[in-house]
């Protein structure tokens, strides 16, 4: 079951890179090497596939930056967002979806996961300011930058973040 889901998400990833979010279930199944029946056993609609793909991409990014110290984690996350092939594909094909993704709304599953990870990274470093970091990180969805500029932005960002409040 997990292998089928992974194949489906890989297929969805390839389909989105090629076609933006205007993918079909047939494209996802074909690119994932699974039968359409298998795809429909996991996901009822294209929107469900896209939502699962987004959460999978977030989980991958969080796992990649989690072991890093705060400055390096933020830099790596912003670089990953700036250079992400799915976001690049959307930038050329579906700017409306890109704008929706950049809207920080922690009530959505994706931004809730990002917020929880940022909160933990900041807490581990003795800092606060999750909403500020989320808005900063979302800016790279719309306006990608290179690693040198991002590292400079991180230095400014960290200088402005308050220390974490001590627990009573």
Walkthrough of the structure:
This protein is an all-alpha fold and 168 residues long. The chain has a single domain (2-160), classed as Tetracycline Repressor, domain 2, CATH 1.10.357. Helices cover 76% and strands 0% of the residues. The protein has helices at residues 2-19, 25-32, 36-42, 46-65, 70-83, 85-93, 95-102, 109-124, 130-142, 147-160. Helix 2 crosses helix 3 and helix 5 crosses helix 10. The protein is elongated.
Brief description of this entry?
With 168 residues, the protein is mostly helical. 76% of the residues lie in helices and 0% in strands. The protein has a single domain (2-160), classed as Tetracycline Repressor, domain 2 (Orthogonal Bundle).
How does the major sheet shape up? none
| Residues in helices, as a percent range | over 70%
The geometry reads as: elongated
Q: What CATH first level would be assigned? A: Mainly Alpha
Q: List segments where confidence is low: pLDDT < 50 over at least 5 consecutive residues.
A: none
Number of structural domains = 1
CATH superfamily: Tetracycline Repressor, domain 2
What name is given to the CATH topology? Tetracycline Repressor, domain 2
For the termini, the CA-CA separation is 46 Å
Q: What oligomeric state do the depicted chains represent?
A: single chain
List the secondary-structure elements in sequence, H or E.
HHHHHHHHHH
Q: Structural class, from helix and strand content?
A: mainly alpha
Which value, in Å, is the CA radius of gyration?
17 Å
By CATH, the architecture is named Orthogonal Bundle
How many DSSP H or I helices? 10
Tell me the β content. under 5%
Count of strand segments:
0
Average pLDDT score: 93
């Amino acid at each position: 079951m997990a292998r089928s889901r992974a194949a489906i998400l890989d297929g969805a990833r390839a389909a989105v890179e090629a076609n933006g979010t205007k993918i079909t279930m047939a494209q996802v199944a074909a690119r994932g090497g699974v039968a359409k029946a298998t795809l429909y056993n996991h996901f009822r609609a294209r929107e469900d596939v896209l939502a699962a793909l987004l959460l999978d991409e977030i989980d991958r990014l969080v796992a990649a930056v989690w072991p890093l110290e705060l400055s390096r984690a933020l830099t790596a996350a912003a670089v990953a967002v700036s250079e992400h092939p799915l976001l690049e594909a959307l930038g050329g094909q579906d700017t409306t979806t890109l704008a929706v993704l950049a809207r920080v709304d922690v009530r959505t599953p994706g931004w809730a996961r990002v917020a929880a990870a940022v909160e933990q990274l900041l807490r581990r470093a003795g800092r606060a300011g999750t909403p500020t970091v989320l808005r900063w990180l979302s800016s790279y969805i719309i306006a990608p930058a290179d690693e040198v500029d991002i590292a400079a932005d991180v230095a400014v960002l960290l200088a402005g973040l308050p220390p974490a409040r001590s627990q009573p």
